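Thread: "does anyone have the structure for this chain?"

Original post by V.I.:
We have the sequence but no experimental structure in hand. Need at least a predicted one for the grant figures.
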Amino acid sequence: MSGNVWALIGAAVAALAGVGSAMGVGIAGQAAAGVVAEDPKKFGRTLILQALPGTQGIYGLIVTFLIFIKIGLLGGGGMKDLSMAQGLYIFVCSLPICIVGIWSGIAQGKAAASGIMLLGKREDQMGKGIIYAAMVETYAIFALLVSLLMLFNLGF
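Reply from O.Q.:
Generated one for you, tokens below.
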């Protein structure tokens, strides 16, 4: 395979962080539906917690677009002719956000679901539920930073 193919695979792999987001949002959505079935007025508050696991997909998309820019796929200049090593470097840059994005999206969905259940029982404790879910977010941000630092520090 050529370097260009490896770089494009890397871009696709980074976007796979959205799998974790989809699963996490689904997990939280199931909990939210249960709470809203009991009290429809809590829809807006549960929606906030349900949306939190969606960020991993955004982070993966950011890395994907930055890879596209790095290889010249966006910007109108035409795609660069990458060596095998360059393509593999770009591929490796996508791995942190992909792997951590998938796992943290699922974990954040579970934490958000617990926060939603807390909101269902004690509406005044919603902030604590957000904090629990946000703690998982920290690791997705770390993975995003690692992917970005690797990508920006390539020598080409």
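V.I.: this helps a lot. The domain at 3-152 is CATH 1.20.120.610 (Four Helix Bundle (Hemerythrin (Met), subunit A)).
O.Q.: and The first helix runs from residue 3 to 15.
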